[in-house]
Amino acid sequence: MNIKRNIFIIIGLLFLANIFSWIVVFSGGNNEDSLYFLNVGQGDSELVRVGQSLFLIDAGKDSEVVKNLEEILPFSKRKIDVVFASHGQQDHMGGLFEVVNRYDIGAVLYNGENSSLWDELKRLLNEREIPYFNVANGDTISYKNTQFNVLWPLVEKTSNTSNDNSMVILMNSSSTRALFTADISSKTEKVLSSFDLNKIDILKIAHHGSKYSSSKEFLDVIKPKIAVVEVGKNSYGHPAEEILDRFKNIGSKVFRTDLDGMIKIDYLNDKIRIFSQN
Q1: What is the value of pTM for the model shown?
Q2: In the predicted model, what is the mean pLDDT of the chain?
Q3: Residue 197: what pLDDT?
Q4: Which CATH architecture describes the domain 31-276?
Q5: What 8-state DSSP symbol labels residue 160?
Q6: Domain residue spans in the chain?
Q7: Which letter, b or e, does each residue of 62-73 get, where b requires 16 or more Cβ atoms within 10 Å of its Cβ?
Q8: DSSP string covering the chain, please?
Q9: Could you list the mean pLDDT of each consecutive 10-residue stretch along the chain, which spans 278 residues?
């Protein structure tokens, strides 16, 4: 009886130790800048921490984004400095309503297109007196050693929502380059291939691994060391096996939120450390 009880106690302590380690790792308890790929199901959401400042790119389709943020941020941290809304589709913008209701937001940047979802969010931003701006190629947000360069769209959009109107962001820090491609297709990738996109360290795989994105020609240009596909249960065949094979062929290390859970990447002084929730 005592032996069984001791084993139970040991297992319990190990379980608590694992939880504590996970909390320490994912809550950002260090001095390194971090990039999180949130596990929001079939949707996109990324959080960049630069020092004590937070930059959120998209927010998935529903309140799952808030559950992720609560796992990362201390209870006292209720401010997100900048939110990027890549385009007005539910699986990227739907969760922003919960974020705006629960956090203090410094500013929202969006791609300028018209959509019913954006109109609804804009009304909420006006109620909360949160400033918002539409951005396009050439706009840059800088903080400390990090710049968020908007590469796409080329000009402010006024058309209805479209995957190829998605905001594409290149994040440059002193040691790391990360590319966030939202839902663009190979059509937009072809244009971006002429940009200075070599030596990409981290790529947010476009459109949840759709076979209509991540063209061989584009990947041959950017050659990411690490690639993350944000995906959940779906009927679209995401991520496509042929796309995963393309990343394998260029030597990229691929992570998936449906299999690996939330992904955290710490980067400092040319060193990258990767942690997964599962």
Answers
A1: 0.89
A2: 89
A3: 94
A4: 4-Layer Sandwich (3.60)
A5: B
A6: 1-29, 31-276
A7: bbbbbebbebbb
A8: -HHHHHHHHHHHHHHHHHHHHHHHHHTT-SSSEEEEE---SSS--EEEEETTEEEEE---SSTHHHHHHHHHS-TT--EEEEEEE--S-HHHHTTHHHHHHHSEEEEEEE---B-HHHHHHHHHHHHHT--EEE--TT-EEEETTEEEEEEE-SS---SBP-GGG--EEEEE-SS-EEEE-TT--HHHHHHHTTSS--S-SEEE-GGGG-TTSS-HHHHHHH--SEEEE---S-SS-PSPHHHHHHHHHTT-EEEEHHHH-SEEEEEETTEEEEEE--
A9: 40 46 50 89 97 95 97 90 96 97 96 92 97 95 94 77 91 93 96 93 98 97 97 96 97 97 88 89
